[in-house]
Specification:
The chain is α/β, with parallel strands linked by helices. It is built from 16 helices and 9 strands. Helix 15 crosses helix 16. It is globular, with a radius of gyration of 19 Å.
């Protein structure tokens, strides 16, 4: 677990009693902390108004815009943490890799990675290239008060999948083929991405974030055997690179119920859980010692109030049987979610006994 008094930067705030950080250390705060993945985004009308005419990558690299978008759900919902408004491909773009976020599609890579020469041509990430992200964090620290700020990065496997496929993929055919057909190329690519991801996390930590989350969005496409051989060593290196920073590390993937034991071995302090597995069972699979984060199905937010409350109570009950619980969705807020439902959900979680 993270030493509660650890300080990685002279700018670090002392938020040891913040519910999120207490729960992440395996403690029982006064109320169960709650925040939502994608809480800052298309579900908020104020976000849509602010982002009008500004591309996603530009918004992520404009400090005052990033700061304001990050603050919007904190003001509206009263969540227990802010998560930095960004995207997993920001460090790739900042490093000079040709990538764009195409509306309705997602990240698209100009020149997909297929050969050893492609990997050798990849640039590294110089910290100064993401200085706008650090600047945005500086602005946020002055506004957030006692609300923790979570930084994040995409895990090497998920980034590699985009880079090999050229964009989003349903079956990850080229990715899985490269793993087996040219493992030396695969591991070289992952090694490059470990460096980029670790640098991006360090910039955020040095700027003052209070926790970090590693998103491995597509890891659930793998068997446990493949995960252990082709992914686990690299995720372990990323999480290990910030092990001494004094901030909790969350590791999250989608569809990873069968991988939770292996993912826990990568070294995170908190294991994120999607909605496909009971929270207490997830904690058991992760070894029984890790606090967990999750795991309401985002689609449940479109149901009636009674159904939502029943699911929230069930998840909180499961969370009481774990080493620690941070309430969240099992993935991101869906774009058409009613913001008022999220606000009421935060109130409901806060009203319940921890």
């Amino acid at each position: 677990m993270v030493p509660p008094a650890a300080v990685a930067s002279g700018r670090r705030r002392d938020l040891r009693s913040a519910p999120l950080l207490v729960a992440a250390r395996g403690g029982r705060p006064a109320h169960v902390p709650v925040w939502f993945m994608r809480q800052a985004g298309r579900s908020l009308p104020e976000y849509r108004a602010l982002r009008s005419g500004t591309g996603m990558l530009a918004a992520c690299l404009t400090p005052d815009l990033t700061s304001e978008i990050t603050m919007q759900p904190v003001r509206r919902h009263g969540v227990d943490a802010a998560i930095l408004f960004s995207d997993i491909v920001v460090p790739l773009y900042a490093a000079g890799i040709g990538v764009d976020i195409v509306p309705g599609t997602g990240p698209v890579i100009d020149h997909p990675i297929r050969t050893a020469a492609d990997v050798a041509a990849l640039p590294s990430l110089e910290p100064g290239r993401v200085a706008p992200v650090a600047d945005a964090i500086g602005l946020l620290l002055r506004e957030l008060g006692d609300v923790p700020l979570i930084g994040f990065a995409g895990a090497p496997f998920t980034l590699a999948s985009y880079m090999v496929e050229g964009g989003p993929s349903r079956n990850h055919e080229r990715t899985k083929a490269l793993m087996r057909s040219a493992p030396e190329v695969w591991h070289a690519l992952m090694d490059r991405l470990v460096g980029i991801t670790s640098t991006f996390l360090h910039v955020q930590i040095d700027a003052g974030v209070d926790a970090v989350q590693l998103f491995d969005s597509w890891a659930g496409a793998l068997s446990e055997r493949d995960y252990r051989e082709y992914v686990l060593p690299h995720s372990t290196r990323v999480l290990g690179s910030v092990a001494d920073a004094g901030v909790p590390r969350v590791h999250f993937g989608v569809g990873t119920g069968e991988l939770l034991g292996a993912m826990a071995e990568a070294g995170a302090d908190v294991v994120g859980v999607d909605w496909r597995i009971p929270l207490d069972e997830a904690a058991r699979r992760a070894g029984g010692t890790h606090p967990v984060q999750g795991n309401l199905d985002p689609a449940v937010l479109f149901a009636d109030a009674g159904s939502i409350e029943a699911e929230v109570r069930r998840i909180l009950d499961e969370g009481r049987r774990t080493p620690g619980h941070v309430f969240n969705l099992g993935h991101g807020v869906l774009p058409d979610t009613d913001p008022d439902v999220l606000t009421r959900l935060v109130e409901l979680v806060h009203e319940q006994a921890p």
